TrEMBL record:
This is Endonuclease MutS2. Belongs to the DNA mismatch repair MutS family. MutS2 subfamily. GO terms for molecular function: ATP binding; ATP hydrolysis activity; ATP-dependent DNA damage sensor activity; endonuclease activity; mismatched DNA binding; ribosomal large subunit binding; rRNA binding. One of its GO terms (biological process) is mismatch repair. It comes from the Bacteria. Gene3D superfamilies: 3.30.1370.110, P-loop containing nucleotide triphosphate hydrolases (3.40.50.300). It is an enzyme of class 3 (hydrolase). Residues 716-791 form the Smr domain. It comes from Pedobacter antarcticus 4BY. Its EC number is 3.1.-.-, 3.6.4.-. Pfam families: MutS_V, Smr. ATP binds at G341, P342, N343, A344, G345, G346, K347, S348. Homodimer. Binds to stalled ribosomes, contacting rRNA. The gene is mutS2. The keyword Cell cycle does not apply.
Length: 791
């Protein structure tokens, strides 16, 4: 139940309806928009929301669903029902085009069975009767005109007309040439009068040529004459034209009779097209306002995350401004939210946002919120917004408010959503405040849900001490004296009456007198509220700073973990290389010793030969020792000066270098490339700038490149990702692949309905480096895997 009748207008739903009208392709879709009603059944709302979400997905993924235009075939089907009636060529062609759209849409969903189950329910059990198309195609050409061979008789008449027209043209040309040679003709060529071809003859020569005069010029000097010889032929053509028209009508009657049995089916096709146009309009509107489907629940509760007023969003979008999102929740424990704060601070917009989004959900529209938001189903939606005073009904402003309050109290239930703007206004605040408090208490006992805006202090105190009610305020920047449009739940807000008055330049004596008249207690309360607002602002700013610092700490921890992984991998690599080198040395040494022993045996322990072999062995060992010494890490000459911030240092027993960022007692914070690390001061030595250049050039670049190439995999798994996240991963992966010169990469995106595969391939076509893309072999994944080959 919606109360009062102008509730939809006051909350802005009528403007939303107007925007939906613009997205409709047909009057039938617009008619459905005009008949939209607030629903109260969970299953029905859920079905409508999911249909809109599925169509939005089709549009966003640029699926090949062609719906350009269609016509009101219901009126044509109703015309067919009458015996003896017939459809004109244009009407038959409208049916033909509309049915082509129907069958194209049905084919689209048939190819994607069970991908869009809620949209498929629109045409459940709807047959595809292409006989209708064939019957129309036998009579009409592709432009919607009767074919010359639609019947044997029509073809014969058409041929006779063509032959007679040629004869008329031949006779007329002959007579015209003769008249020209006799100088009977006025300036000009053959012309048409009353559907007949005529010769323009000078008035003084009209008796010299026998024929029928159809017209004369304005001056009377020229007459338009149809020669007697052609007159009979033209009459014959006219008779043939009548015969042709009668034959066409006969064909149209016969075709209409053939289509009459399909009249109920045409009505069904009309209904399908109308629903499709309606859902399409809702999906386009959802894209326009960046709407999504919230979590729909059966309980009467609301949890809005990053909610935006759709009309305000569109208005700000044109001015290239952004809307401050609304975050609020309403449940069994916190049923009514009492919003207070300064004028023009966003209280009414907050309340109207909640009301409008609730109306949109219960009419099957997606709303501009985060998809994790939750919206329940309410049986009643009541609103008291604006001034409804009426001379005719003898109602003042306050009387109109009280009339609504009476209705609210009489019909309120736990599944009622109430929105009241400026609660209690319109009369003396001394009496209006207590009256509003009494109504609020009764509504709270009825366990209704609602958002109420007010400036009354007694209502703020009542909400703070009553279970089920919760104070909330719109944040205000005390320094700049400007509203922040952020809803803060938990504490009431000040009206900032004196602060705003002072800010706009109201005279000090007026302000001082107003403060005296307000009363000490009220001033104290208002001052406390202002202080609370200031503290909330400080807490809000502190939270932001703390969040920034936490992010910095997380980044440092992440960098430290990466450095540890880098050092650990370095250590494992060095150990592995050392083991391999040791095995090679032992192998070569064993081989050298064996060769020496074999040589001694062959020479039968000859002293000279043995001495020579020993010298060779010693020589090989000395050469190997020299090579090993050259491989020792080059340690730079240490500097004896104290280490300061900005100096370059080298880790002891390592070629790793870094720059000092901070000095904390005995610890140094070093920048090791892109990483940060904390190292004891006694584990490093200071080096000069010349030495650092040599070390960096010789070690860092090649080591990083080799590590990057060694850790890179030419395979990327994108399964389970959303399209936007997958595209971002592909972009980063492509940059690495191209930089490292890989010939090809393998992208695993899965099959599904093919949407992710299509979007990835469309994105990859933007790269000039991509030579071609191929599917994996059918036995190894088929079109669920894409190979990308580079130039």
């Amino acid at each position: 139940m919606i109360y009062p009748e102008n509730c939809l207008d006051r909350l802005g739903f009528s403007e939303v309806r107007e925007l939906l009208y613009k997205h409709c392709l047909s009057p039938m879709g617009q008619y459905m928009v005009s008949k939209m009603q607030v629903m109260t059944k969970y299953d029905q709302i859920n079905k409508f929301l999911r249909q809109t979400k599925e169509f939005k997905s089709i549009l966003e993924n640029q699926e090949p669903l062609q719906i350009s235009s269609f016509y009101d075939i219901k009126s044509l089907a109703d015309k067919i029902r009458v015996e003896g009636s017939y459809l004109m060529e244009e009407e038959l062609f409208q049916i033909y085009l509309s049915l082509q759209t129907v069958f194209s849409v049905l084919r689209f969903f048939e190819e994607r069975k069970e991908v869009y189950p809620n949209l498929e329910a629109l045409f459940e059990h709807l047959p595809v009767e292409k006989t209708i198309l064939r019957k129309i195609e036998a009579v009409l050409d592709p432009k919607g005109k009767i074919k010359p061979n639609a019947s044997a008789k029509l073809q014969e008449i058409t041929a006779e007309i063509s032959k007679a027209e040629q004869e008329v043209r031949k006779r007329m040309d002959s007579i015209y040439k003769q008249a020209v040679s006799s100088n009977w003709v006025a300036d000009g060529s053959l012309t048409v009068r009353d559907g007949r071809i005529c010769i323009p003859i000078l008035a003084e020569n009209k008796r010299k040529l026998k024929g029928f005069i159809h017209d004369e010029s304005a001056s009377g000097q020229t007459v338009y004459l149809e020669p007697e010889e052609v007159f009979t032929l033209n009459n014959k053509i006219r008779d043939l034209e009548f015969d042709k028209r009668r034959e066409i009508i006969r064909i149209l009657i016969a075709l209409t009779d053939e289509l009459r049995p399909y009249q109920p089916l045409l009505i069904s096709y009309h209904g399908f097209l109308t629903k499709l146009d309606f859902v399409r309009a809702k999906a386009l509107f959802a894209i326009e306002v960046e709407a999504d489907m919230p979590v729909l629940v059966t309980e009467p509760r609301i949890k809005l995350i990053n909610a935006r007023h759709p009309l305000l969003y569109l208005s700000f979008k044109e001015d290239k401004k952004t809307v401050v999102p609304l975050n609020m929740h309403m449940n069994a424990d916190m049923r009514i939210i009492l919003v207070s704060g300064p004028n023009a601070g966003g209280k009414s917009v907050c309340m109207k946002t909640v009301g409008l989004l609730q109306l949109m959900v219960q009419t099957g529209l997606l709303i501009p919120v985060h998809e994790s938001s939750e919206v329940g189903v309410f049986e009643n939606i009541f609103a008291d917004i604006g001034d409804d005073q009426s001379i005719e009904s003898d109602l003042s402003t306050y009387s109109a408010h009280l009339t609504k309050m009476r209705y609210f109290v009489a019909h309120a239930t736990p599944k009622t959503l109430v929105m009241i703007d400026e609660f209690g206004t319109g009369t003396d605040p001394q009496f209006g405040g207590p009256m509003a408090e009494a109504v609020l208490e009764v509504l709270n006992k009825r366990k209704v849900r609602g958002v109420i805006t007010t400036h009354y202090s007694n209502l703020k105190l009542f909400a703070g001490n009553t279970p089920g009610l919760e104070n909330a305020s719109m944040l205000f920047d005390n320094d700049r004296m400007k509203p922040m449009y952020v809803l803060e739940i938990g504490k009431p807000g000040s009206s900032y009456a004196f602060e705003i008055a002072q800010n706009i330049g109201l005279q000090p004596e007026v302000l001082a007198l107003a403060r005296e008249k307000t009363g000490t207690n009220q001033n104290r309360i208002d001052s406390l509220l202002v202080d609370l607002e200031r503290e909330k602002k400080q807490i809000y700013d502190t939270k932001i700073q703390l969040s920034t610092q936490q992010n910095k700490v997380k980044n440092l921890v992440s960098e430290n973990e990466k450095l540890q992984e880098f050092l650990e991998e370095n250590r494992r690599t060095l150990i592995r290389e050392a083991k391999l080198e040791a095995q090679t040395i032992i192998k070569n040494a064993n081989k050298l010793v064996e060769n020496t022993i074999a040589g001694i045996k062959e020479n039968q322990a000859d002293k000279e030969a043995t001495r020579q072999l020993r010298q060779n062995l010693h020589k090989e060992l000395v050469q190997h020792q020299v090579k090993e010494e050259k491989k020792v890490v080059k340690v730079a000459e240490p500097l004896n000066t104290p280490i300061e911030v900005g100096d370059w240092v080298q880790l002891l027993n390592s070629d790793t270098t870094g720059q000092v960022l901070e000095i904390n007692r005995g610890n140094l914070v070093l920048a090791l490339g892109d990483l940060r690390s904390v190292v004891k001061k006694d584990r490093v030595q200071k080096i000069s700038n010349k030495q650092i250049k040599k070390l960096v050039q010789s070690n860092s670049f090649s080591g990083r490149i080799s590590d990057a190439i060694g850790n890179f995999s030419a395979e990327l798994d994108l399964r389970g990702m959303r399209a936007e996240a997958a595209i971002q991963e592909v972009e980063k992966y492509m940059d690495k692949s191209i930089m490292m010169g890989f010939p090809f990469i393998k992208l695993i995106h899965g099959k599904g309905d093919g949407i992710l595969r299509k979007m990835i391939r469309e994105y990859l076509r933007k790269y000039k480096q991509v030579n071609r893309m191929e599917d994996e072999h059918a036995d190894r994944g088929g079109d669920g895997i894409t190979y990308v080959y580079f130039n």
